[in-house]
Amino acid sequence: MANDNEQGPNVALPLREVDPDALKVVRKLLANGHEAYLVGGCVRDLYLRRRPKDFDVATSATPEQIRKTFRNSRIIGRRFKLAHVFFGPKIIETSTFRTTPVAADDDDLLITRDNEWGNIEDDARRRDFTINGLFHDLEANRIVDLVDGIPDLERGVIRTIGDPLVRFQEDPVRMIRAIKFAARLDFTIEEATWEALLDTVGDITKCARARLLEEVYKLLRGGASRRSFELLLESGLFPYVLPSYDELFRERTEVGLVRSQRFPKGKDDAPLATGYHPSRLFWELLDALDEYTIETGQEASNGVILAVLLAPIIDQEWISASRRDLDRTIDATMEGLCAPLGVARRDRELARQILMAHRRMVGTAKRRRRRPSLVQRQYFHDALVFLGIAVQARGEDDSEFAHWQRLAATVAPMVASDDGPPRSSGGSKGGDDKRRRRGGRSRRRGRSSGSGGRSSRASDRG
Fold first, then answer.
1. Which CATH number goes with the domain that contains 83?
2. Closest C-alpha to 238, from 267, 211, 272, 210
């Protein structure tokens, strides 16, 4: 399996931490005469002594050869063809070594297809950032580093492989990924990479909506959503990523002028100095969402994430609006947020149900005995998660949240029927799920706006 041109430090990884099914995939490919390595984020995380979420494999085998080797696999993708090897609900993503594709237009570097096969050296150069360009040689139990990824891991730096301007133009989603890794790993974005990102923010509109939406979800469900959004704002990506939300949530005011008169240049601690004043509730909701993710080890559903984004906009409507008016406000606001991103209808509906349920779940001390039917709805778990996040964000008493937890433990849930109303699913404790028990309020992190320099990017560190 070793290649004469491979270089890299003799760094072993703890194989006991590697998913056994990923090891099976690598070993079977090796046994069939192919090169095969663990690659990317799993190698990075193992080196950092973090638990990888996923394990990916890179190989010299083509997608068709992978499919023939594993009966429990299928080929997916057009722009980037690869194979998914299934082990129950688990997927080991297995891709063929790539080389640089030929650009279709000299004036546009955007890569629309990336299915030119190569070798391990080619593949390393095709990856986005040095910290993601690491391979693990299972036979020798060592990391293969062809792009100086380990030194950048040691320094805590996000750096593109190759010319950052070209790499972002080839695939603008890499800009979002740079921010994601900087926030999640608490790394800085290297100066040239950051400057190229600033120069190419407008190219993000060239991305397919589905890819962009998935990256936004990842920013919000990774436990570092606040820092991610601070960097989106700081870089200028925010209005491109969420254009309608940008207009709905941050109405243009004279706040920028007032603050510029009040604070010396460079001393304003607001996230922006452009005449916008983001809602404090928005940042507190992101803090609470991050705490939920970290404390429970669970990822919030897409519906909960959308509810978190919508909540600051309709916050006052929960208090003053009638149910019908609130429903209309939610639908109108959601259309502005979701339509540009192509959010799935099921996720929109779940977010709407969560927000409508929230009105019923708060301030119900005098009406609690009339609320058990809500607990039986399919969306109740997500509504309970959102309630916990909202209570945490506002610093409110958690007695309402505790009440709904107790009620959930005593009422059987309902399941939706295609041809009738929800019906009971049976069982005695439909809410007896660890994911529903958020527990008491934990220590809340600081509320700094994140504008104090470039602490998660260039100079001090997709």
1. 3.30.460.10
2. 272
Instruction: Tell me the C-alpha distance between 172 and 92, whole Å.
Output: 25
**Which of 2-6, 119-123, 328-332, 410-414 has the highest mean predicted lDDT (pLDDT)?**
119-123
**Residue 128 is among the residues annotated as catalytic for this protein:** yes
CB 375 within 8 A of CB 431: yes
Q: What is the mean pLDDT of residues 232-261?
A: 66
- The whole-angstrom separation of Cα 353 and Cα 44 is 39
Cα(282)–Cα(245) distance, integer angstroms: 12
pLDDT of residue 322: 67
Determine the Cα–Cα distance for residues 135 and 37; give it in Å rounded to an integer.
6
Q: What is the pLDDT of residues 56-88, one digit of tens each?
A: 999 999 999 999 999 999 999 887 899 999 999
Six-digit token string for 111:
């890569």
Q: Has residue 93 been placed in a domain?
A: yes
Q: In the beta sheet, which residues pair with residue 83?
A: 75, 94
Domain extent, residue 376, equals: 278-436
Is 87 a member of any domain?
Answer: yes
Return d(Cα 394, Cα 389) in angstroms, integer: 9
How far is residue 148 CA from its own chain's centroid?
Answer: 26
Residues for the chain: how many in total? 462
- When divided into structural domains, the chain yields a total of 2
- Active-site pick, 128, 145, 171, 382: 128
Please confirm, yes or no, whether 203 is among the known catalytic residues: no
Contact (Cβ atoms closer than 8 angstroms) between residue 293 and residue 223 = yes
Annotated catalytic residue, options 19, 21, 54, 268: 54
Amino acid identity for residue 294 in this structure: I
Q: Single out the residue in 155, 171, 200 at which a domain terminates.
A: 155
460 has catalytic annotation? no
Judgement on whether residues 149 and 6 belong to the same structural domain of the protein? yes
Residue with tokens 């409507």: 317
Q: Write down the catalytic residue from 4, 19, 21, 56.
A: 56
Is residue 117 within 8 A of residue 98, CB to CB? The reply is: yes
Q: Which residues contact 323 (CB under 8 A, 6 or more apart)?
A: 356, 359
